[in-house]
Amino acid sequence: MTWMLKRVTDYWDQQVGAVYAHAQRLEGMGPSAREAALDEIATSVSRHAQALNDELLARVGFIMVEDLYKAVCALSYWDDSIAEYLAASAGVFCDALAARGFQLRYVIDNAYEANAAGLSGPAEWFPLWFTAAGLNYICPQHLAFKLMESRGREPGAGLLPEFIVDGRGAGRGLVDRCLKERGHYVFLDTDATDASLAPALSDPSAPGSILVFRKEAPVPGSKCVVNITPPS
Predict the structure, then answer these.
(1) 116-136 pLDDT, tens per residue?
(2) 65: number of CA atoms within 13 Å, CB side?
(3) Strands 103-108 and 209-214: what pairing?
(4) In terms of pTM, does the model score above 0.90?
């Protein structure tokens, strides 16, 4: 079966669980076949991207990151096959966006309960997922957990009130760096305020910006706001 799919969005279509299905195909392969498959995926995604004009490329970037968020919210396991598939598909498409002068900025204002279960996705699994997909992941709660650990404290939701101010400060710094360096990013604050979201949403009409703001939970029929500005 070829890895040149009919549409580039087929590589991530969460309606059919595409990421997991394709990763499972990889999982069943031997090392050499798997390496060849990953090369074919990367080449195929690159060819799809090259065939799109700037407007369509940006729209696919929006569709892709939406599907990636919906898929990670349904995550039930994590392994090397998922990471490798994301890198070969989404990572390659993110590179194509950057090469055309686009910056993908996905900003999420969704609430997650401030306990171990509620924050396991945002603080533990989302960073692995989005980093593998070629996106900088910025989450004040995740950063607060990392600060706890660096200061010799056992990371936990109970310490969030003590560390969240510093976590948000670190998040602002990472957003500023991404904006300066034109790095793609996913920004999620699980208990957002207007002030905490403002840096990630700033300058929505910057040349080449694909700014997506999701305020609704990623369920069927939900909506988000997207603003695409052509590169200069």
Answers:
(1) 899 999 999 999 999 999 999
(2) 31
(3) parallel
(4) yes
